[in-house]
């Protein structure tokens, strides 16, 4: 036994640690036997006391296979001592001691029984894959252990994991099994640019076929590339048995790929990353690795999850290569260069950092967690993604004020995303949603299955989801349809499971396109879209984004759509699946509110009664009565946008502001207020609003009296001193009142005046009770600058003679006395005498 399963060498230490500690980490390479042998060996431990072991496997295929392998080792049928639970399927009984479950199932079990009575050991297998559900289940399990079950053991198993970091976080010892991995030789075959991946992989498989012995396992990103590679290999005519292996295959087909060929024919297995771990594929001696995998990535800016093809990480590449060295020395053909290998990212990113967190947040709300960060996380959920998930769950009526609702609890009964769960509930006739026909639930079952599975129709079929419902129903009734049969079989299997759960029968009656749209809107309430122009391919979503249908799509005849699938896109998105919406139906979901706003073109406050879905307007009717408070609010908002210039006070206001702001600088203890543009706009409700009670138009605004309103901004005692301390104008010897230009920052005021008007003035004028001299800009008779001075006496004494000499011939009609101290000041040219 030990020879076959190297992990057994670590069993004594593991038994000891589990006896002494509540959490233990086991690190063992692929093929060591940790998934199939250890749970059996631990069944009779004293601390288990006859309780069950629950083992979490990240994939359905692995869960079934591991359970079947353990049952075979005990020479029993699955469902006796060893059983499994996966979505819509379980093989367990009251005698089951070890249950292998997939992601989500363990969370459901914890929610159903908070203390996990009857369970003594939880095993998290392949934890290095860091799936969202595994992280969630571990966080909940740790809290169960801490609060309710201090006797519960947790065993975390991984092939490649930063055990030291995890050990420090959980205060858990690490047990290491070295395994018995045979050496694997790596050959690097950099892929040619612009050559399809399936073609490159096929060439490498052909090369490996002739150079090596043993079965070949080739890794490709997804089912599409696998099917293309299978077609190319069939055309090659190699004497091989070719087997696809991916998650959507039937269990029978998956088993054919895993088990040895019954006639001993050499096999080529074309697999996704599903074959990296857990599964033991018999006979593999050669691996061909394309170097890519397809992973779900959530874009928080768009609220969408999309599959993205990414370069494998180093740990994943090592695991893939290791599949060739389980039975003996093997070979791995890597379709990239050694330079690329050196720069691969070390570990895969935990899904919790990229995923749609709506399912996680709903589960935690049911658990009673208000602060997501209060749990023990290996990697904490990003706060931004948590907030976005909460926003969606509020839209889906699953949360209210961040508390789970009765509807949210019902949604958790469905093993699916909250979006689909909300749609299914919306279709049931007993949910107080206006649905009377039980056949609608059968429609929802079909739509749920279509949304969760791959599209059965080719791209050229267009985006109409209603067409896919129709094709599925025609195929179900035995008609021939132009769709992928194997995909339709998977969809029907899933739809059947949903019908069973919903307790409804199949329905053959025609489905209205808008009924499909109504159900899609229940799942994707934020993806209601309105056509931007008649027969246009461009639609605006209720969040403001624009998305396009494929060119010439028949759905362009529809003014409203509920969009089920679209890409995130950097600019305009692409609509892949959608269904028409009935505008009258939309009216029942629209939010109605009175909108009061400023119509700049008409120069007035206007009000309309609107019905909207998000930012999309369904209808609007004008309102004649606008409350005083609403008008004032809109006017203040408009002024903040356009500025106080709208009042028509520019010159008066600017001069008044500068005078007050100067005094604020000069006389800091007097209490002169801040009357800058920014502060006045911030305080409109205080000083201007009382004068807006009967105002609704721009012309009425511009009739408001500046002096009256501005005088209310500060106390009367300050206002009465303004003209004395900072006069708008000052008299000069000619008898003129000359304007002063003040500045907000308290610089000296400036007077621009022709020097002939100052004859006889000996000292520079001053303001602020004589404390602040003004700056004189002395002008020629032609109003050209002559001199700038703050010392008039010095000008007359030292500079005037030169100015007189230069200008008297240019302006002979004007007065240029030799003695400016005693000369009479004049406003214009000299008067004629006689």
UniProtKB/TrEMBL annotation:
<dbReference type="Pfam" id="PF08482">
    <property type="entry name" value="HrpB_C"/>
</dbReference>
<dbReference type="InterPro" id="IPR056329">
    <property type="entry name" value="CON_HrpB"/>
</dbReference>
<dbReference type="InterPro" id="IPR011545">
    <property type="entry name" value="DEAD/DEAH_box_helicase_dom"/>
</dbReference>
<feature type="domain" description="Helicase ATP-binding">
    <location>
        <begin position="15"/>
        <end position="179"/>
    </location>
</feature>
<dbReference type="GO" id="GO:0016787">
    <property type="term" value="F:hydrolase activity"/>
</dbReference>
<keyword id="KW-0378">Hydrolase</keyword>
<dbReference type="InterPro" id="IPR013689">
    <property type="entry name" value="RNA_helicase_ATP-dep_HrpB_C"/>
</dbReference>
<feature type="domain" description="Helicase C-terminal">
    <location>
        <begin position="200"/>
        <end position="368"/>
    </location>
</feature>
<dbReference type="InterPro" id="IPR001650">
    <property type="entry name" value="Helicase_C-like"/>
</dbReference>
<protein>
    <submittedName>
        <fullName>ATP-dependent helicase HrpB</fullName>
    </submittedName>
</protein>
<keyword id="KW-0067">ATP-binding</keyword>
<dbReference type="Pfam" id="PF24473">
    <property type="entry name" value="CON_HrpB"/>
</dbReference>
<dbReference type="Pfam" id="PF00270">
    <property type="entry name" value="DEAD"/>
</dbReference>
<keyword id="KW-0347">Helicase</keyword>
<dbReference type="GO" id="GO:0003676">
    <property type="term" value="F:nucleic acid binding"/>
</dbReference>
<dbReference type="GO" id="GO:0004386">
    <property type="term" value="F:helicase activity"/>
</dbReference>
<dbReference type="GO" id="GO:0005524">
    <property type="term" value="F:ATP binding"/>
</dbReference>
<dbReference type="InterPro" id="IPR007502">
    <property type="entry name" value="Helicase-assoc_dom"/>
</dbReference>
<dbReference type="InterPro" id="IPR027417">
    <property type="entry name" value="P-loop_NTPase"/>
</dbReference>
<dbReference type="InterPro" id="IPR049614">
    <property type="entry name" value="HrpB_DEXH"/>
</dbReference>
<dbReference type="Pfam" id="PF00271">
    <property type="entry name" value="Helicase_C"/>
</dbReference>
<keyword id="KW-0547">Nucleotide-binding</keyword>
<dbReference type="InterPro" id="IPR010225">
    <property type="entry name" value="HrpB"/>
</dbReference>
<dbReference type="InterPro" id="IPR014001">
    <property type="entry name" value="Helicase_ATP-bd"/>
</dbReference>
């Amino acid at each position: 036994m030990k020879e076959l399963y190297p992990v057994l060498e670590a069993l004594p230490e593991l038994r000891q640690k589990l006896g002494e500690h509540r959490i233990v980490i086991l690190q063992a390479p692929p093929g060591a036997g940790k998934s199939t042998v250890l749970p059996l060996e631990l069944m009779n431990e004293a601390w288990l006391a006859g309780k069950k072991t629950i083992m979490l496997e990240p994939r359905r295929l692995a869960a079934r296979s591991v359970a079947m392998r353990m049952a075979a080792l005990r020479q029993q049928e699955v469902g006796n001592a060893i059983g499994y639970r996966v979505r819509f399927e379980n093989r367990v009984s009251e005698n089951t001691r070890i249950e292998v479950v997939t992601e989500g199932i363990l969370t459901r079990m914890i929610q159903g029984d908070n203390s996990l009575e009857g369970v003594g050991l939880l095993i998290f297998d392949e934890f290095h894959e860091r799936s969202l559900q595994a992280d969630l289940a571990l966080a909940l399990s740790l809290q169960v252990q801490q609060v309710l079950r201090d006797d519960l053991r947790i065993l975390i198993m991984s092939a490649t994991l930063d055990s030291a970091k995890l050990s420090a976080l959980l205060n858990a010892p690490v047990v290491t099994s070295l395994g018995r991995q045979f050496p694997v030789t790596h050959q690097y075959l950099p892929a040619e640019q612009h050559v399809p991946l399936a073609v490159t992989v096929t060439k490498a498989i052909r090369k490996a076929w002739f150079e090596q012995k043993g079965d070949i396992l080739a890794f490709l990103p997804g089912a599409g590339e696998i099917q293309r590679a299978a077609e190319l290999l069939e055309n090659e005519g190699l004497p091989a048995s070719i087997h696809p292996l991916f998650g959507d295959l039937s269990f029978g087909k998956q088993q054919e790929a895993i088990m040895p060929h019954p006639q001993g024919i050499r096999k080529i297995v074309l697999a996704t990353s599903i074959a990296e771990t857990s599964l033991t594929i018999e006979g593999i001696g050669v691996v061909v690795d394309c170097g890519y995998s397809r992973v779900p990535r959530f874009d928080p800016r768009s609220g969408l999850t999309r599959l993205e093809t990414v370069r494998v990480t180093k740990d994943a590449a090592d695991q893939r290569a290791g599949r060739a060295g389980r039975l003996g020395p093997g070979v791995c053909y890597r379709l990239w260069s050694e330079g690329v290998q050196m720069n691969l990212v070390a570990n895969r990113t935990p899904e919790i950092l990229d995923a749609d967190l709506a399912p996680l947040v709903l589960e935690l709300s049911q658990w009673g967690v208000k602060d997501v960060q209060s749990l023990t996380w290996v990697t904490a959920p990003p706060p931004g993604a948590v907030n976005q998930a909460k926003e969606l769950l509020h839209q889906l009526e699953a949360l209210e004020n961040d508390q789970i609702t009765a509807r949210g609890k019902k949604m958790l009964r469905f093993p699916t995303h909250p979006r689909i769960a909300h749609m299914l509930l919306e279709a049931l006739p007993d949910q107080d949603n206006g649905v009377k026909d039980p056949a609608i639930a059968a429609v929802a079952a079909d739509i749920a299955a279509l949304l969760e599975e791959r599209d059965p129709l080719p791209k050229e079929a267009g985006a109409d989801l209603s067409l896919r419902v129709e094709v599925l129903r025609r195929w179900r009734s035995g008609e021939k349809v132009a769709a992928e049969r194997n995909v339709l079989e998977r969809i029907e299997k899933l739809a059947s499971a949903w019908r069973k759960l919903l307790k409804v029968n199949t329905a053959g009656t025609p489905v209205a396109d808008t009924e499909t749209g109504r159900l899609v809107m229940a799942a994707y309430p934020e993806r209601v879209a309105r056509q931007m122009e008649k027969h246009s391919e461009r639609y605006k979503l209720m969040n403001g984004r624009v998305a396009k249908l494929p060119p010439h799509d028949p759905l362009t005849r529809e003014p409203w759509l509920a969009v089920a699938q679209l890409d995130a896109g950097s600019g305009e998105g692409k609509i892949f699946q959608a269904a028409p919406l009935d505008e009258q139906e939309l009216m029942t979901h629209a939010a109605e509110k009175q909108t009061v706003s400023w119509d700049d073109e008409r120069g007035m406050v206007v009000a309309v009664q609107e019905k909207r879905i998000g930012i999309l307007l369904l209808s609007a009717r004008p309102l004649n009565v606008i409350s005083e408070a609403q008008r004032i609010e809109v006017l203040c908002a408009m002024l903040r946008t356009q500025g106080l210039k709208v009042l028509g006070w520019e010159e008066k206001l600017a001069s008044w502001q500068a005078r007050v702001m100067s005094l604020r600088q000069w006389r800091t203890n007097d209490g002169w207020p801040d009357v800058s543009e920014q502060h006045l706009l911030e305080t409109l409700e205080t000083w201007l609003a009382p004068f807006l009670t009967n105002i609704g138009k721009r012309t009425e605004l511009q009739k408001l009296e500046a002096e009256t309103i501005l005088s209310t901004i500060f106390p009367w005692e300050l206002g009465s001193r303004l003209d004395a301390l900072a006069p708008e104008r000052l008299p000069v010897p000619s008898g003129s009142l000359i304007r002063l230009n003040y500045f907000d920052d308290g610089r000296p005021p400036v007077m621009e005046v022709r020097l002939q008007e100052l004859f006889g003035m000996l000292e520079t004028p001053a303001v602020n009770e004589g404390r602040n001299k003004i700056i004189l800009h002395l002008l020629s008779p032609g109003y050209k600058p002559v001199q700038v001075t703050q010392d008039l006496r010095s000008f007359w004494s030292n500079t005037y003679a030169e100015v007189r000499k230069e200008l008297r011939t240019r302006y002979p009609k004007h007065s240029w006395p030799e003695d400016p101290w005693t000369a009479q000041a004049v406003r214009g040219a000299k008067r004629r005498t006689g």
